[in-house]
Amino acid sequence: MSPITPNYKFGHDDHYDTHHSTGHAPNLHDHSHVHGHAHEGHSDNMRGVFLHVMADTLGSVGVIVSTLLIQFYGWTGFDPIASLFIAILIAASVIPLVIDTGKVLALDIGTKENSIRDALAELAPIEGLASYSVPRFWPKDSASMIGTIHIQITPSPSSLDPGGPHSNARPTFARVDRVIERVDKLLRSRISGLEELTIQVEDSSSYYAD
């Protein structure tokens, strides 16, 4: 089952650096789709195609071999023996594919759940990240994963200062792209096989309204 951890709010950093503030609020409800490098694992679909071709090939080879043996030795038992041998080989190859496919359909991430939770726990030190919510990860195939996460960006201190010139203006946010990049880099480095990651950025100013 895909792990869904509780929403987590980090402490507000009063010393947040504002030298690279954008000066305007970005569209914080857009999705940032960050795709990974080419998948290096084996696709379950391609494994299925390979097994299908292999079964046809072995069937043809078995017919030829059993026919030659029957012709030379006259014993018809070679045909069922060849068929049984081919069936055992195919079954031994198909069982791992069935198990892997079943895990994908069941959204079973297995032992990777611990690494996912550890990776999420390491998001706290990222500067400019106020919190994260609804992290979801599920297998794409036996070797790769897909994930989504919502992150809340810390508003610039000038937006939170009641006596400041921008106190009544819409909150501004600093280094949004850099925060997204750091979240993406950390999760990919800590979660093995994370091929695609969608990061949705949201406004966290309501957390500091009080």
From TrEMBL:
Keywords: Ion transport, Kinase, Membrane, Transferase, Transmembrane, Transmembrane helix, Transport. The gene is Q96X32. Residues 15-41 are annotated as: Disordered. It is found in: Membrane. InterPro entries: Cation_efflux, Cation_efflux_TM, Cation_efflux_TMD_sf, Msc2-like. GO terms for molecular function: kinase activity; zinc ion transmembrane transporter activity. The keyword Glycoprotein does not apply. Gene3D superfamilies: Cation efflux protein transmembrane domain (1.20.1510.10). One of its GO terms (cellular component) is membrane. Residues 36-105 form the Cation efflux protein transmembrane domain. Belongs to the cation diffusion facilitator (CDF) transporter (TC 2.A.4) family. SLC30A subfamily. It is a multi-pass membrane protein. The chain crosses the membrane at residues 49-75, 81-99. The keyword Transferase applies. Residues 27-41 have a biased composition (Basic and acidic residues). GO terms for biological process: intracellular zinc ion homeostasis; zinc ion import into Golgi lumen. SUPFAM superfamilies: Cation efflux protein transmembrane domain-like. This is MAP kinase pathway-interacting Ubc2.
